[in-house]
Design a protein that fits this description.
about 200 residues, mainly alpha
């Protein structure tokens, strides 16, 4: 029923997804869930377009929050934490590169958006640097959503984040021959001895 309702109201579905992206710009809705959900609803080219527009909307909301914040300023933060000033002293000279580099650290996109708004990073340098960093994962999640099959263990992925921010991926799958060959008797010592 839900799929039939969405197919009858595709424009409304697209607008709801874009609203979720905008809300994600100031909240903690999982980014991947929106991307995959969009690809479940729309065919792949349209899902990529909607997810691209939505991602720009998402990063723009957090940027604008920082940019037009009255009570929170970059200078105020630097007064409280002067050691951070050296990390941001040349940020304005290398806006695109700095934005791209910060996104590769896998910190919160919303926090980064507020930070770059506070830094008064030029908007187009912020958007372009962010999108170059975010497009690969956006495309991966969109393709996963397009090919999503709840019964296929290939798509049962688990992501863990360690203390340094590194991601570790695990995939659930049906046991194959390779997982059953761990016992010595299953290998057959004679076969190993005859190998060159």
């Amino acid at each position: 029923q839900i799929i039939a309702a969405v197919n009858d109201n595709r424009l409304i579905a697209a607008l709801v997804i874009l609203a979720l992206f905008a809300f994600k710009g100031c909240s903690c809705i999982p980014y991947a869930v929106i991307l995959i959900g969009c690809a479940l609803i729309f065919e792949l080219p349209l899902a990529i377009l909607i997810n691209t527009v939505g991602t720009v909307l998402c990063i723009s909301v957090s940027y604008l929050i920082g940019r037009f914040s009255k009570g929170l300023t970059f200078e105020g933060i630097m007064e409280k934490h002067p050691k951070f000033r050296r990390y941001f002293s040349n940020a304005e000279n290398y806006s695109f590169t700095f934005v791209f580099f910060m996104h590769t650290l896998h910190l919160s996109t919303e926090v980064q958006g507020v930070l770059f708004g506070l830094l008064r990073t030029p908007y187009w340098a912020y958007v372009s640097g962010s999108m170059v960093a975010l497009i690969p994962s956006m495309l991966i999640y969109t393709v996963i959503g397009d090919e999503f099959d709840f019964t296929n263990p290939l798509f049962w992925a688990f992501v863990a984040l360690d203390a340094t921010g590194n991601r570790e991926f695990s995939f659930a799958r049906k046991p194959g021959a390779d997982t059953r060959l761990t016992e010595a008797e299953a290998l057959g010592a004679g076969l190993i001895d005859d190998c060159r």
